[in-house]
Amino acid sequence: MNLNIPENTSKNTHNVVESLLLEENPKETLDIPSGAGAFTKRLLDKSLVVFSADIENILMIENEHFIQTDMNKELPFRDEKFDAIVCIDGIEHLENPFFFVRETCRILQSEGTLIISTPNINSIRSRWRWLWTSHHNKCKSPLNEHKPSYLHHINMMSYQRLRYILNTSGFKIEKVKTNRIKAISWIYAPLVPLAQLVTKFVYNKEEKDEKQRISNKAIIADLFKSSLLFGETMIIKARKK
Fold this sequence. Notes:
seven-stranded mixed sheet, globular
């Protein structure tokens, strides 16, 4: 039966994440949060072993390796169980993303891979929206405080913050990708030279630690790649140190 499972993420995100994951030839992968199971199905169709996990079981396919879990709490897996973990559009929903990333490090094998996708609030288009409304793209208005939900984007994640979380939790970023660049995003290209000039000036002025100055140069290099300047979704591939 040909199931049309909703991906519940931006277009082409699953394609990019799959490509990054298959570079690793994983033996056991954790798909968290698994949602309706669109990405899980991709891996099962390739005869890969995939564990699915989410706060509730809404899988539209059968997977004997489904475990119900809260990503804000300790993950119910032994140390170093997986060689790859995929978190598609999940981290921005968490109350404690630091704890979640540390948990993924715990259950990943040495040199294991973590792939995270999240709305790209570093894009010039998203920053422009913030200037006028104090809201980023993909979170355009205040969250409904009368109906709190785990579906809310309560922790929109900049590249700088996600890099800090990963680098202080046992990971090293290897690749920064995006799902796609919409044509409208190129309208903001004239703002890039000034943004780059100001960013370099501020980073150099504020940071006195020499080691962090070196790190800041790497951060700037990533910030001004087209994937982060214009991309819709930020996709990070990191490796456990």
